[in-house]
Amino acid sequence: MGRKTGAHIVPDEGKTVRFRTTASIDAIEQNVSTWKDFFSRHGGRGGAPLTGRPALTEENSSEADAATYRLLLQAWRSLLMHEPWPANVSLNEDGVTMWQGFDLVREAKRCAVMRSGLRFRDDDPAMALLLLQSGEWTMRGLLDARLESRRKVGHNPFPRHYDNALVDHADALPEVDGDGAVSEGRTDLRHLPFVTIDPPDAKDFDDAVCLVEEDGTRTLWVAIADVAHYVKAGSALDRAAAARATSVYLPHTVLPMLPPRLADDLCSLRAGVDRLAMVVGMDLDAEDNIVRTHAYEAVIHVEANIAYGDVAQTDAYDDMLALAAVWQGRETRLNLNNPELRPRVHGDDELRVEVKWPNDATRMIESFMVATNAAVGHLLGEAEAPLPWRCHAPPDRPEVEELNAKLAALDIGIQLPMPSLRKHGETETDELANLLGDWAGGGLSIDTSALAEPETPTDESEVPTYLADVIDPEARQGILSSLSEAQTAASGLNETTRRIVDQGLFQLMQRANYSEVNGGHFGLNLDAYVHFTSPIRRYPDLMAHRQLKAFVHGREWVHDTEETARLADHCSEQGTAAKRLEWELVANTYHVHLLRGGRLGDEEQPMPTSYNARVTGLRSPWVFLDLADDGAVSGRMHLSQLGGKQKLVVDDFGLEVTPAEPDQTGEHPVVLRLGQRFPCRLRGLDVWSGSLDLAPI
């Protein structure tokens, strides 16, 4: 009967069906025709890849087309935000979007791609660009939308806002009663001349310092806000903080680990008010070595909150600057850091790029915080406290071999020795036996007594338990020294080659993580290192505070080994997720900045969208480029854009791009080298997920 009348059978609720009438079919087909006509007129090629074609409005199109375009904007937003398809963007009142080969959702995506002119693999960048350009989203709105979109698919584990009940709980916490806290057993350290030293726009002050000489003993005092007093283990607030594990600092906002009342007020060491703090005293000898560490659950009274720039305007801090300079002079570290660029969104659309240049004051505070973290690590390590150690492993041997092969191919004359992994208490023969055992198939015991002269055995009982898995300091120092010497040797090379060496050394560095087993910190050249100095924004610091409190009062450890291991893994994962989120939104922010004609750096470019970029990577089929040679904005270019009809290849070491076939002379002339400058232009900006499409000028 349905066939005879021209009706269609439509599935209904349950197992029932209903017939679609001829009139309804005519209406659907009319709407299909209307949409096809719209897409043929407004969804074809011709979009500008940097800005896209302008939005359709009553000023530049018909009222009907402008209304249809507004419907598309709704649909594009729903797709990006993983929301249900808008009911009013359909082929009939029932929400039909497909009819006899016509797919409205597919055509809407295709229209966005065509109007944007972008050539990315996904449709999302095209839809995001058109939403931004239409005014549906501001820069701030775009970033918030990206956060929410990632949250819905499980790639953003950091809620945008705190639970209201926890905020109310924090808001109800009383002000600090210093006298009352002392009467209840806290150590009164309000006489110490603490100051905080932070950026000029800092709102929360979580550390304070002073250097005092008393009875012939100089002591560096470091006070850290006592977050553990307010965030009790196992409480609802603690569970929320542990779930987040870290604060996330984004261009337009902060996703905090703690509610504002704690982060910005009670746990902020503001001048002129009593504050609860965990205080670490480090006694110094005549050579500025730390000879004794002591810790207190205390009350302090900060004298002043000063900015980094204020330190140089007075001689009041010369003694602390001198101490930091001595410590820094003893360090062996690689100089691989550029000035820190911080893009910040002000209001809804204004971007300012703030450059954080290191100076004597910033380096001083960094040295004091590192020393405190290490001192607490040793203090609690000797007490065998379970801790989320901050571990950083040395370079892997295969990666060192790969870098050496690359340097040899360049004929640079720099070769790195293989890193030694000898542990505390091990001899070189022990290390060789372990290496041979690993090579032979895992844990075999191999007699190497004939390979070396007898060595004086080390009494294993002399090595504290918490240092048993840490690389021997001499072995670690040897690796760092060899890397530093390589960097020094490269400083006399030409710019391109020097950048290759610097980048190779940087890529040797492993990612630091948290672990219940102390592996030492290679980059800082330290045997024991915990995060302790930022409990407002990192959960591992809060755990260390709780363990230190237990140590001070002789109580049982708050976190046992099993819980510490679980939380250490979780905090490592959250830290990686936070860093990825930060990198992505920083890239999106810069891309909107470029989209609106903003510049990077002070260098003059021949065209508004061109850059004399640095080649930072060659991995077939891609060339990776750093636009301003400062690490702020990077993109990639396909090899096919360089060679035209000629096929190009990357050599085995990722050093050069050459033609796959030899020229008339039998040579393979170099088209591009790693580390060189290369003029390129912006071909496409992805303001949604941070990709950048580049092309030769």
Features:
697 residues; alpha+beta; globular; 38% helix; 25 strands; 21 helices; 5-stranded mixed sheet
Describe the structure.
The chain is of the alpha+beta class and 697 residues long. Among the domains are: 24-136, no CATH class; 170-387, no CATH class; 610-696, Nucleic acid-binding proteins (OB fold (Dihydrolipoamide Acetyltransferase, E2P)). The strands form nine sheets. A five-stranded mixed beta sheet has the order 5-12-11-8-7. A five-stranded antiparallel beta sheet has the order 20-19-18-24-25. Strands 21-22-23 form a three-stranded antiparallel beta sheet. Helix 2 packs parallel to helix 4, helix 3 crosses helix 5 (124-133) and helix 17 (473-490) packs antiparallel against helix 18 (495-508). The protein is globular and about 95 Å long. Residues 437-458 have low confidence and may be disordered.
